Amino acid sequence: MIDVIVNPTAGNGYALKVIEQVEKHLKENNIAHKIYYTEYKKHATELAKQSVINNVDTVLCVGGDGTAFEIVSGLTGSKTALGLIPAGTGNDFIKTIKTPKDPIEALKRILSTKPRPLDLGQANDNMFLNVSGTGFDVMVLDFAEKAKKFVKGILPYLYGIIQTIIHHKPYKLKITLDNEKVIEGNYLICAVCNGRYFGGGIKIAGNAEVNDGLFDVIIVEDIKKSQMPKYLLGLLKGKILEFDITKAFYAKTVKIESKGMRVNEDGEIFKTDVVEFKNLHNNLNVYW
Question: pTM of the full predicted structure?
């Protein structure tokens, strides 16, 4: 049995077009399934938990990274596998696990392969699949969210980057890796990565592996506003690891402290003074 969880607002309604194609394909191939539509925040988590209780084999996520973010919180540690059908704005995690962009091609791949375990990130009480952290990218997401009403793909994030440059301010952070190494200072970005991409396809951690039991921790030192266009052009080209202001670390646990900090977890924003990350090795079964 397959449960299909659909976020009807994903991709500015694109998910509703995708589910029509998905349902048609499942029916044509006589595959038993049930379709559920999310109606409120964290509803996808509740639906996923119920799928686990019902011993459902597979949950298909028809939406974007935000929808997957909710679903994994319901599936964590269970035998129920997750299949990702891209129908959101950014769809960043599928780029790391090489899921086809075309929804039906993604579905065909899911139906013809077996799920494999991969790592899940935990940030305080929340689970995430892809990238979490704080700094510049959080402000970008704030501005991008407004632009998503009009455009999709990388365009909302480009708008967010431009607006963030205008409103730029440094982020004072204390970062602890594996309870040992402590880093303090003003930073532009601190990203805790399971996946490789964020912001609608920007490569942030090109060496990240989703099943190695480690986060790639990418820290970018703060710079003057006048320098930002130069470095952001490199970021858009996926060359962040080549910057002289970038440091990359590998860790099983990460702790970030900053008063009034706003944290990005797969595109969802949370406010806290302290966030503690744990890498949950091979915690989730996913078709990839």
Answer: 0.90
